[in-house]
Amino acid sequence: MSDSLKPQGDNSLPCSLPAGRTSPGAPSSLLPRRRAARVLTSTCLVGLGLATAGTATAVPPTIDLLSPVGGEVWTGGTDAMVEWSATDTDGTVTEIQIEYRDAESADWKMVVRGLPNTGQWLWPVHNTPTSEARIRVVAIDNTAMSSDDISDATFSILQTPGGFVPTTLRDFELPGSQPFAISRSLDSSSLCQICHGGYEPEVEPAATYFGSMMHHAARDPLFHACLAIAEQDAPSSGDMCIRCHTPGGWLDGRSQPTDGSRLTQADRDGVACDFCHKMVDPIYEDGISPVEDAYVLQQLDAVPTSFETGQYVVDPSSWRRGPFDAPDAMHPWLQSPFHQDGDMCGTCHSVSNPAFTRVSGQDYAPNALDTPIANLNDALPLERTYHEWKFSDYNTPTGVYAPEFAGNKPGGYVATCEDCHMRDASGHGCNSEFAPLRPDVPIHDLTGGNTFVPLLVLDLYPGEVDETAIMAGIDRARYMLQNAAELEVVVTADADSFLAAVTVTNQTGHKLPTGYPEGRRMWINVQAFDQGGAKIYESAAYDSSTAVLTEDEHATVYEAKMGISPGLAAAIGQTAGESFHFVLNDSTYKDNRIPPRGFTNANYDTFGGLPVEDGVAQRYPDGQYWDTRGYPLPAETDHVIATLYYQTMSKEYADFLRDENTTNDAGDILHALWSTYGKSRPEAMVSDTVSVNVTGIEDISTDEGPAGAALLAFSTGPLPFQDELSIRFRLDRPTPVRLEVFDLQGRRIYAEDQVHLSVGAHTLRWAGIDQGGNDAGSGVFWLRVKAGDVSETARVVRVR
What are the Polar residues biased-composition ranges (predicted)? Predict the structure, then answer.
């Protein structure tokens, strides 16, 4: 706290203001609090514009805390009534603030502000067990004078009961801005829309943002269903989730209780415009960061040292920040390099569980309970999208050529998260006639791959959300999915049948898929058809009516599956193995998601992102950003179709969130919507079709050949053959005959000409050799017999 805001010995407030402050006094939330009433002198009142010279000294309000007074025993996570009596003889009590501390030597922490003087308020008791708790109530009048009163003696807070792990709020305490660190609530995004919307719907910030899942992060029914399970499993863990899904609600203290039950409609603004544009880079760089950042960071009790797990820093003043120099903005504005850097995105797109610490390799152990983690860099990795990008070729000065994502980026190269997810376009940043036309206005769609949950949001909040914006957002997400990967199928002969090699190449700057791992997956569906069009083979078949994905022995499903180790399972009474209990999981049992360009195992090991697959020592070698899987196909295969699918929420996860919820109806709501809207219908990302017929070898066999046809009763045998194949046919007139043999790649390996054959039956023989007399080996071959104007083809199989 600056000297001008420190309590003075005569109980008077300072007349001076922090440098740069132009308001008529410090915000009430920043005023120092002490037990005795403080008095604003008439001199100060004149200086602050609250009175004129010659007025009598103002009288502060009186306040009496009635409960708790000491000796009470309250339980964390439950509601307890705080009661007071406040009056003001020469004015009106305009605001009540309530604070608490959990030890006699601890700092006061605000729990609510802006209350009317009703005399009572239900406090959702913080889950911070202690026998030294006190409450302080502050009354503020219409002249900004204040008085406070505290509990006469300490009272006790008991730990929130329940949970498989007895965690408390302290287990999830993290550095950065804390609740009530800003002087007033964040502005609603609808307020920003006044100037930043309604003029260029394809480019403007408002229309694109309103269709994004960032805007709907706190409306997301999947989030609320997950939150309920997390709170059941580990009390107070929800505070960490709410921190990123609704920063406005968290900063206003409504993450207490941590089940989200006190979040308001305003909090459903999600990751609001005002939040992102007030974010401050916690790593100050002299000469690069705005100088105003230094003052903000100095006010923090603990400054984040990494970009992850919601450790954001928010400017408490009215300064907004962004990538451009905008001196004519209608609000205070600072140009901020942080807003062009992927580090900013890492704040919420790299998530760890601070209740676990890495002990060695991929092993993590629970921390001491009721204690903040010592080093968040060692915490259990849950989501690592930011780190996956950080250690990729995308995070280089040149970046990677990806014109499908680059928008107006010069040369089509992308390097940062914003380059792809807020691609540059030509347009205006606001609707002012003076706004410059820029070639690099970032489109605020912030699009990922979620085409399903926006439909649920639209159903739940029809009068609150913009349907046009949401549907446009779904289209953009579908575009992202359709350009996130390439797929290629190569078919080769394999003894008497075929082998399809399907290669999926990751075209993104992170793992594919990435982000929240539970229920999110991608798979290769392979189908083979015979010449009549009948399906004769399928791998990874999906039943859209039941949402069941059949994982046959060759099925390839790209996903991360976390779970509980045997040691932890025994300690908490759970079953070891794969698990959807997100906050309890301490192990990664599978992670075969495809890494991006520039991947190395050593780099990914540093942040807990190593690929994992049972029985495979190294799932992806260094530098590999693709994956090739093999599929055995029947001998009758005529053509094969491979399709890469993406799904936001699996049936197993939807069922889990419904069946495991014993707290509220969030799981039931989600499951009903999931069923109504197609059970999270998979999105086809990319597909490839390959014909097994060799290119250039055309089967024109008909019962009635063209004019001059001479070839009849064509057959081959035995099939499959080993040493010699017989080719039998009849001629209806004398004609030259040519026999050709091709391998599966369409290369002619053998040819034999019969200059003139007579009318009648004939047999040609092929001994399985090439033109040089060498053994052609086993596999699938194509024969073509040409007689006059007619040719016949046949696929034959040789086994050895």
Answer: 1-14
